[in-house]
């Protein structure tokens, strides 16, 4: 507080009267010898400093200052950094005499945004005294990082019956910068392409309009991510592929036969195993949804009304339908001996959602074989035995008619012949009316009496 005192000593007599003029006066100089009893004291209790990242190497940060109330060597202060990590010890330097703190390397806010250092001030007393202070260095952000997509190529799968505005997937974009430098907006490079919209609030891609796998099974779009950094925003791009997953929403379309009217005539000489016709259909769906299986939904049984149907029974029909190819083949024929009998019939194939029978509007004018009547052409089909009996009856009736005609012709001829004979007899009788019969003449000549 005070290093030197000056004391004046004045001599007095024994009575206590003031000394006369000329009495001796002495001045005593007292010097206080310093002892190192004060540690260095920093002017601030905590130092704060901001510095932008990507600083030039060797840039000055700040100068710390500590004072020591002692004098001479006891008041001389030197500075050093406290215990640091290896990286911090390489980056930061302090001048031990002036307390100037500098940074010797580039600072990267994305790696570490805050550095905390301890600066120690020590005097040269014996023993020395010291004190420390905290220095906080905040690294300010620069727009030195472009937006980063999670992947350069996003792949999403979307069912074609997804409701509108449903989420397709997360875009996964980020920016390690902060504040405006880290705010990212994603847009489509070609905004008019595809039925999709970008939700920047949720960071998702959403479905906007109808998607149809049969029209387009996938969509390609390019995304552009832009941050709000100033003065020059940074950008990056990514590709998005959206595969439209097929939903079984299309009914099979029958190509063959072309309508419900075409019919097929089968020759009586067709051998077993011959393909007699083919059903061909396509499905606009894909994958398993497009695989078509052919089955007989209903069959019009002989002898029943057109509205009566029953399920397929392969044992009751000579025809077989292949479930995969749609081929209709002749599975077996009539097993009669010695030669199989065949009946040629129309095969009407109706492919429809309902079970309505197939009705033909017209029939071919000429066919190589006589067709049997189908249930749609008459109320009920006559059994084979009845047909044979009817044929026999017709033949019998024909024979009877022919016999009757022959009999009438014979009678007419007989009557004509008889009439002719009678006319000749009458004529002979008129000529020989007066002649004697030969037998009577003989009697006359022999003298016999009549």
TrEMBL record:
One of its GO terms (biological process) is anatomical structure morphogenesis. It is found in: Membrane. GO terms for molecular function: calcium ion binding. One of its GO terms (cellular component) is plasma membrane. Keywords: Calcium, Glycoprotein, Membrane, Repeat, Transmembrane, Transmembrane helix. It is a single-pass membrane protein. PROSITE patterns: CADHERIN_1 (PS00232), CADHERIN_2 (PS50268). The chain crosses the membrane at residues 391-415. Residues 299-336 are annotated as: Disordered. Its main location: membrane. It comes from the Eukaryota. InterPro entries: Cadherin-like_dom, Cadherin-like_sf, Cadherin_CS, Protocadherin/Cadherin-CA. The keyword Calcium applies. Residues 2-42, 43-149, 150-254 form the Cadherin domain. The keyword Protein biosynthesis does not apply. Residues 319-328 have a biased composition (Polar residues). This is Cadherin domain-containing protein. It comes from Oncorhynchus mykiss.
